Amino acid sequence: MTMPAAPRAPGVDVEWVSADVPVPAAVRTDVAGFVGIAQRGPDHQPVRISGWSQFQTVFGGYDPRAWLAFAVNGFFANGGDACWVVRVVDPDTAKPATADLPAAPSQPAVTATATSEGSWADGTRLTSVDLGNGAFSLSVDSPVAQEVWPELSLNSTAARYFGTVVNDPVRGSQVVNLSTPAKGPPVTAVRSGTVTLSGGADGLATLQPGHLSGDSPPGKTWGLAALDNVQEVGVVAIPDAINHPAEPARPAPPPLPAPGCCDPAPAQPVGAAGAPPPTASEQPPQLSPGQITSLYNILLVSCATRRRFALLDEPSAADRPDNAIGWAQTLQASSTAAAFGCLGYPWILGPDPFGSAGDVLATPVSGHLAGVFARNDLTVGVHKAPANATVVVARDVAWAVDSPAHAQLNAASVSVITVRPGRGIRLMGARTLDPGPTWRYVNVRRLISMIELSLESALSWLVFEPNSPATRSAVEREVRAFLLTLWQRGALDGAQATDAMTVRCDDTTTTADDAAAGRLICLVGVQPPIPAEFVTVRIAISEAGVQVMGEQGRTALPAPGGPSGQ
Question: Which residue would you say has higher pLDDT here, 555 or 530?
Fold first, then answer.
């Protein structure tokens, strides 16, 4: 729309302005949600993470008891832009490490408490220096961070009041919060000396599937349920639904793929100065196959309700193709929402952060697939099948899948990761767990979910508008404009727009009875692009020479006068 020219003389001016229909914006589909076990960080609260270094700062690094950090690292390495992370613990048994700063005999003390539950802060040394008149300095020595907080004050009105400075959620300490007794005489001094934090508990030994799935008591929100109201999450994974071996499994790697495959340097354990992760003294319980199945069913139903997509893992690195087929069949038989998830197989071999340089560790793939999905969505669009894409931070696969096994896995709706000689390690499947033709492909299910969510958001203005022909016409125009934009971007299939979509919102879709009941109905049909999963090249040999043609040219083959073949 151009700006109108300034009037030159008194009177009435007629100006033409653009009548373009506003096009609704498509919702994001690339943002992932992860639920799992971490070293530290807020428990059962979603935290938005925009990079691996931020995850390390908030939640710690690799933990020998958990897969969450591997999944998040794989997400960002494969092209992910942002994700939400929920750390799970048993809130009844998880405790932060604590210590009282030195105080005069019989005097109340300032208590230092780790910023989150867990054993990660045990052994942290706090050194205080009494500056007199209720002032003190504090240094913090921890594998997480070394901090110095000078000239703190016990006076709540002072500019350097410890509760304002150290406890600030953004600029404050990454390691401790300070507090004084709620009742009794006020704290008047912090003496010089050194104390050590202790008593932290990870809350893992008593962890139950409900802590992951969100099956929480009234008034509490756990695990997966913490993501319910995070609108931008498009794909979800629960890496720690899969048991972590007591000792890291390090299968002997097959020969490395041909040059050209991504082969990053070994990852380094988290720590302010490369310190190793804390001793894994508290182990989470091993989930049974039935518990994993139930947890995955809850995840699939949650994704179906919110039109997200679940990324599921094979239970073990040692599983053969027939085990993966059986696992897929179990999930298909037990879930009513199989179309809202896919199963990745096999595990991948990547750098082992707990071993020597060159060691490999087998890890589940849900986080890496989330990154592949995000990369695909950001560079092309959700309408493209997220397949034939390189899986980064992978040196090899835990089980080599040959062509016959790949065919069986594909028919069983398992998305296979395999080595392509000269092309690296690639995701060569994009099938949902639904074996039916309608929702067979990942991109079709996710594209329709994106359209549903986008229109739901764009048409929210309709609520309580008059259910009139004018309103219905406006809805039809807005929906049609949105779908036309998708078609122009290649997200819908069809030589012409009319081949790609149909939209109708009028008196034939919204009857008088519908209007009386407060319903406005718009019928929408779209033609999603079906991926070319099987590509056949026909080669004919005749006296005219070798000819390469597609399926359409089969009947036009010249009559062979000599040897021929296809």
Answer: 530
CA 255-261-266 angle, to 5 degrees, is 80
Whole-number CA gyration radius for the chain: 30
Q: Name the strand (E) or helix (H) holding 442.
A: helix 442-458
CATH fold for domain 98-196:
Immunoglobulin-like (2.60.40)
Q: Categorize the per-residue pLDDT at 41 as very low, low, confident or very high, splitting at 50, 70 and 90.
A: very high
Q: How many residues does the chain have?
A: 566
Classify 198 as helix, strand or coil: strand
Q: Name the strand (E) or helix (H) holding 125.
A: strand 125-132
Domain range summary for the chain, segments of one domain joined by +: 32-90+207-262+286-444, 98-196, 459-526
Residue 412 scores a pLDDT above 80: yes
CATH code for the structural domain at 32-90+207-262+286-444: 3.40.50.11780
Question: CA 369 → CA 73, 127, 254, 307, distances in Å?
Answer: 11, 45, 22, 18
Q: Is 289 helix (H, G, I), strand (E, B) or coil?
A: helix
8 A C-beta contact, residue 370 and residue 82: no
Reported as type and span, the H/E element at residue 426 is: strand 424-427
Q: Which amino acid is at 174?
A: Q
**In the predicted model, is pLDDT for residue 34 greater than 80?**
yes
| Strand ordering across the sheet containing 341-345 | 47-49, 83-87, 32-36, 235-237, 309-313, 341-345, 414-420, 424-427, 389-390
Give the three-state DSSP class for 86: strand
Mean pLDDT value of segment 346-374:
95
Backbone φ and ψ for 496, nearest 5 degrees, come out as: -125, 160
Identify the CA nearest to 65 among candidates 42, 81, 87: 87
With a CB cutoff of 8 Å and minimum separation 6, the contacts of 37 are 63, 65, 66, 67, 68, 87, 88, 89, 204, 207, 240, 284
CB 153 within 8 A of CB 160: yes
Collapsing DSSP to helix, strand or coil, 296 comes out as: helix
Tokens at 15, concatenated: 């100006």
The answer to whether 61 and 270 are in contact (CB under 8 A) is yes
pLDDT tens digits, 337-352: 999 999 999 999 999 9
What token pair was written down for 361? Answer: 């560790």
Kindly list the distances between the CA atom of residue 495 and the CA atoms of 482, 491, 492, 523, 557, in Å, as whole numbers in the listed order: 18, 12, 10, 21, 27
Distance from C-alpha of 154 to C-alpha of 63, rounded to nearest angstrom: 37
Instruction: Write the CA distances from 23 to 26, 480, 488, 520, integer angstroms.
Output: 9, 9, 13, 20
Sequence-separated (6 or more) residues with CB below 8 Å from residue 481: 21, 22, 23, 24
Kindly write down the DSSP assignment for every residue of 128-151, as one continuous string: EEEEETTEEEEEEE-SS-EEEEEE
3-class SS at 524?
strand
Give the phi and the psi of residue 308 in degrees, each rounded to 5: -105, -170
Asked whether the beta carbons of 539 and 566 are under 8 A apart, the reply is: yes
Q: How far apart are CA 278 and CA 143, in angstroms?
A: 9
Q: How far is residue 373's CA from residue 80's CA, in Å, rounded to a whole number?
A: 8
| C-beta separation of 362 from 47 below 8 A | no
